[in-house]
Amino acid sequence: MEAQRQQEVNSSETFLDKVFKYSERGSNVKTEVIGGITTFLTMAYIVFVNPAILADAGMDKAALITVTILATAIGTLTFAFLGNAPFALAPGMGLNAFFTYSLVLGEGVSWQQALGVVFISGMIFFILAVTGVRNYIAQAIPKELSIASAAGIGLFLSFVGLKSMGVIVADQSTLVALGEFTPTVLIALLGLALMFIFEVKKVKGGILISIVITTVISIATGYVELPSAIISVPPSIEPVAFKLDILGALKFSLIGPIFSFMFIDMFDSLAFLISCCKQMGLEGKDGNINGLSRMLYADVTSTLIGSLLGTSTVTTFGESAAGIAAGARTGLASVVTAGLFLITLLFTPLLGAVPSYAAAPALVMVGVFMFTSIKQVNFDDRKIAVSAFITILLMPLTYSISIGLCFGFISYILMHVVSKEAHKVSLTLWIIGILSVINLALS
C-alpha cells in the first residue's frame, strides 16, 4: 500500500516536472511551494488595498474584492502556464491610483470609460508586441525617465496614502496641512509604524500582518463592526464586470492617459522581468531572456481580462521577487500563489471589514519601495537631473501620473535641444513629446 502511494507521488511529481521543468532549473516541488506561499504573503495586501482605491472612483467595493482576487488568480495562472516563471500578477499599485485619482476624480472621466482606457491601452500594448514596435518604443524611452517615473509614482502613492489615513488634509492657505490626531488616525499611524518595523526586520508578509493587527484593534475599540459571518459566498462581480465603455474611451483627450497606462505597464514589467530572470539564470548566451515574449504576452493578456472583469491594469507584481528569493524558479510557484488567492474568496466578509485607514499605510510602504529606484538616476548630468526631478515632483503636486510623465518627456527633449544634443533624441521620442504637448493642452 505504501509502495503504491509512493509510486503515485513520484508519478505526480514527474508530471509536474514535465509541465514546469523545475528539475531543469535546479528546483523541486517543496521549494516551488514555499516560493509560492512567500509571494502570496508579501502581496496579499492587494486584496484590501485595490478595492479601497477603486471604490473612491464610485465602484462597488464588495464586487471589487471578488474582482481583485479573480483578476489576480487568473493573471497569475496565465503567467504560470504561458510564461512558466514564478511571477504573480495583480492590479498594479500606482496604476490603480492613476485610474481613480487622476483619471476619474481628476479629469472627470467615468469609471466605465476609465476601464475602457485600460482595455485600449492593453490592446495597443498587445499590437505593439505582436508587430515588434514595442522594441522601438522600449529603446526610445530614456532609462532615467523610466526610473524617475517609478519614483514619482512612489511619492504619489505615499501622498494618497497619507491623505486616506487622515494624516494630511486640505488647507486653503497652504493647500495641505497636518490633520488632527483622532483615534483612527493614530491606529493608521500604528499600522504604518508596524510596516516600517516589519520591513527593517525583514518579516515576510509584514504589510499584511500590520493591516490585520490594525483591523483587529479597530474592531476591539468599536470603530469597525465584526461581520456576522466569516465564511460566505463571495460578492457578485455583476456591479462592475463587463461595464467598461470602450467607445466612450475613444476620445482624443484620453490619448495621454492611454499611453501612460501602456507606458507604465510595459516598462515596469519589462525592467522587473529582465532583472529577475537574469537572477534566475534564464538569460541566453545571446544576452536575451528565454521566454520573455511569452511572459509579456501573459502580462498584457491579464490586463485585458482584468479590464473586462472590472479592475485597473493587471501587471507583474514586484513582490514576486520575494518568492524568487525563497528559491522559486518556475510557474509551479505561481500556481500555488493563485490557489491561495482563490481560497481567500471564502473569507470576503472579513476582507470587507478592513477599514480604508488600515489599508492606506500600505500605499506609503509601497511608495517607499518604488522611490528607492531614484538612486539609479545620474543627477550629475543636469539634463537628466532636470527632467527626472520635474517628472518626480509634478506627479504628486498635480495629482496626476500622466501630467508628470508629459512634463518629464517635454523637459528631457528641451534640455537636449538647448544643450545642442538634439541628435540624441530619437524620432519615436519626438513623437511622444508632441503627444505630450497635445495632452497637456487638452487637460
Return the string of H and E elements: HHHHEHHHHEEHHHHHEHHHHHHHH
The general outline is: globular
* Main structural class: mainly alpha
Query: What's the total helix number?
Result: 21
How is the largest sheet built, in terms of strand order? Answer: 1-4
Distance between the termini: 72 Å
Total strands: the figure is 4
Compute the average pLDDT: 87
Q: Could you list the spans in which at least 5 consecutive residues all have pLDDT below 50?
A: none
Q: In percent terms, what proportion of residues is strand? A: under 5%
Compute the CA-based radius of gyration: 22 Å
**What profile does the largest beta sheet have?**
2 strands, antiparallel
> Portion of residues in helices?
55-70%
Family: Belongs to the nucleobase:cation symporter-2 (NCS2) (TC 2.A.40) family. Azg-like subfamily.
Subcellular location: Cell membrane
InterPro entries: Azg-like, Azg-like_bact_archaea, NCS2
Main location: membrane
Q: Would you write up a description of this structure?
A:
The protein is mostly helical and 443 residues long. 68% of the residues lie in helices and 3% in strands. It contains 21 helices and four strands. It has helices at 2-20, 29-43, 46-55, 61-82, 95-107, 111-131, 133-140, 143-165, 183-200, 206-220, 246-249, 255-279, 292-309, 320-325, 331-343, 348-352, 356-359, 361-371, 382-397, 401-418, 427-442, and strands spanning 89-91, 168-171, 175-178, 314-316. It has a two-stranded antiparallel ribbon. The chain has a two-stranded antiparallel ribbon with strand order 2-3. A hairpin with a 3-residue loop joins β2 (168-171) and β3. α6 crosses α12 (255-279) and α9 runs parallel beside α18 (361-371). The longest helix is centred in the middle third of the chain and has 25 residues, at 255-279. The mean pLDDT is 87.
